[in-house]
Design goal:
The chain is of the alpha/beta class. The chain is about 40% helix and about 20% strand. It has 10 helices and 9 strands. α2 links the parallel β2 and β3. α7 crosses α8 and α9 runs antiparallel to α10. It starts with a strand and ends in a 6-residue tail after the last strand.
């Protein structure tokens, strides 16, 4: 496995791989890797002849400077994990390498990117599209792999790929959870042991809402999740919405869509740590 820090160096190695007829799989990450990331890498390795993993904390998608400063950086540990998984390249550029000059491009895909994360984190998805498009241009992958924990982000990236006319396949991958149900996240490393104990209530009440929805309205189900999580000392729901899985638009009734997802963001602890999760109510993979 090679650790590469420049776009030119990346291109040289990839040109050799392509000359050998290998397809290229790509897993973009911000580092602090966990089993959720590992599942994406394993899938890429199994489906492609060559796998690139980027390890880059992108400053343009953070609208909170403190959040950016607190984001964990674990490149050495990440490289050891990725080598064990069979990745071929870890691309870990500097900020200066990716942004030699300010990126003034604007990406806009309403209504997908204007609700939930888009509403609560102004500029976030524009920053995501800036860096992901830069990485796509650098890697030119055949397939790119994203975790469905960031459900809205996957929808935004699909819209961007179509908008830019990029010739690649976006491969969403299921959420990976701890044994107790907590969705794996790099931010979990920021939780104290006590915060970790209460964080599991996020997935607990999402799972319970799957049973609660039977015989209850969509609005009642939304309230069930919000009220129960907010009752847990140390947890505060920033938003919970039940939306159409394609348009990300809020729904009023279960009958309004054949593909329904509940998306949540919760603040956990004193700092606090911002955690996201989602659950399918109707449609593909409508299970835990």
């Amino acid at each position: 496995m090679q650790l590469i820090k420049t776009i030119d160096g990346l291109g040289m190695v990839l040109s050799i791989a392509r000359s050998e007829g290998k397809t290229v799989g790509f897993v973009p990450t911000m580092g602090a890797l966990h089993e959720g990331h590992a599942s994406l890498v394993r899938r890429s390795v199994s489906e492609n002849g060559f796998t690139v993993v980027s390890d880059f904390v992108n400053p343009t998608q953070f609208n909170d400077k403190t959040d950016l400063q607190n984001y964990p950086h674990t490149l050495d540990a990440d490289c050891r994990l990725l080598e064990s998984l069979g990745a071929d390249i870890v691309f870990a550029p500097s900020v200066e390498e990716m942004y030699p000059e300010p990126d003034t491009r604007t990406f806009s895909y309403p209504p997908i990117d204007t609700v939930m994360e888009g509403a609560f984190r102004p500029g976030h998805f524009n920053g995501v599209c800036q860096i992901v498009s830069k990485l796509f241009y650098a890697v030119c992958p055949d397939r790119a792999y994203f975790g469905e924990k960031d459900f809205q982000q996957v929808a935004v990236i699909k819209a961007m790929v179509e908008d830019l006319g990029l010739d690649l396949e976006i491969c969403p991958c299921p959420i990976v959870r701890e044994a107790d149900g907590l969705a794996l996240s790099s931010r979990n490393a920021l939780l104290t042991p006590e915060e970790r104990k209460i964080a599991v209530n996020i997935s607990k009440y999402l799972f319970e809402s799957k049973q609660f929805m039977e015989g209850h309205t969509l609005a009642e189900t939304r309230s069930f999740v919000i009220d129960n999580i907010n009752k847990v000392e140390g947890l505060e729901v920033q938003y919970y919405d039940i939306v159409d899985a394609d348009s990300m638009q809020s729904l009023a009734n279960w009958e309004d869509s054949n593909s329904i997802v509940g998306c949540i963001t919760v603040f956990c602890g004193q700092r606090p740590v911002r955690l996201i999760d989602n659950i399918r109510y109707k449609g593909k993979n409508a299970v835990r």
